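Protein 1 of 2
SEQ + STRUCT:
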Amino acid sequence: MNMSAPATLILAGWLALAAPLRAAESARLVIVPFDNVTGRKTQDPLQEGIADLLTVCFAPFADRAAVVDRSVLRRLTDEQSLSQANLVANDTWQRVGQLSGATHLLGGNFGRSPKGLEVQGSLYDVGSTQLVFSVECSGGADELSEMLCDRIAQGVVKHLDAAGTVQSLPDLDVDPAANHLMISGMGHYYNGNLAQAFPAFMKILRVHPKDEPAQFWLARSFYEAELMEFAAVEFKKYLDRHPQGKRRSEVEALLQRAEGRSNE
């Protein structure tokens, strides 16, 4: 595959970053979108949604196992013209895992169950390409946050603990209350309970006005609720407060749509 010079330099930089991380053998996860096996296209948003929620679920364990920022995964897959969907189905996931400095890749699928939803998480070792841990959980749609945090995230960390691959990483300032609100808010967002998502993100912003994820998801919740004037206000706040924000290009596009629809 031919790559432009800038892309080659970027990937080389990630390889250089990955080397010391692998040498230290600290657990570092890259979380890819989960496959939708429900047979319902309406459930497709959960492909990214589950991965986003799991990223939040791992925040309390950040001093033991770090998660590669999902914007890094998006950038790497875009640079290599790869689809994030079904990364685990071929060898491209190993390449992306190595380029991002990850030691492990977490993916899986979700389908229907008698309880409502069943989620299967699969943890792969990037170096050996072997499946090293898997876990299944099921429950109602309103239990999604608990399923992902209590069963999958905690299960992965316990496995890494037992395998001796979790090492102490630099302490991070994790606010338990804010983390709980983020999990709750995103759970409501992906369940379509937008009226309950707003206050969760607002409470975070009262204490942490420059919290980038909370600002984005508050604006996105207003957007999905078709409250375009409110969405436009919050998207503008994001751009003002986070000029180098990870989602800046996405926010600019959504702001343009929100302003166009609010003027209709």
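Protein 2 of 2
SEQ + STRUCT:
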Amino acid sequence: MKFICFVLLFVVTSRIGYSQAIIYGVKAGFNMATFTGNDVESAKLQPSFHVGGFANFLITDKITVQPEILYSGKGAKYDQGNYRLGYINVPVLAQYNDASGFFAEAGPQAGLLLTAKRKTGQTLDIKDDLKSADFSWVVGLGYKTASGVGIGARYDFGYYNIATAGIIRNKAILISIIYTFGVNEE
């Protein structure tokens, strides 16, 4: 509940504090995730997906702030089985937008663990073995056309230990299809 209140407060405050230009959008795409850390050996990439929405606030003609709310699948593959984690992620990204449509983005991301399963012939719930929050840093590149369609790629590297015992961090590569709509008052 605190997490949802924080997100709503951030979005309302952002709208009040920034200029009049705002663009809304949706995105969905493909994830390749794995684990890193001292207690991780031979983890392989686990495919998954992400889907969500964003608001893009114009600060200058080239700089925007983009808070997002995404469902994102994470986890890792091992020879002994697969780990599948589901998060609600809230990145808040600063973007540099070139007039040609290319953009670069970076910023922090908070995540709330929704599901955690380990499959080794049978599926086990492992949510109690993991912390309910994740914090990471996100960097990415992309391209948006004037019609609002775009593509983006980002790297999400966790700096927060998600395990209750040992040290395990999430990392993921995300490839997104983006569609923007809304009002852009210039």
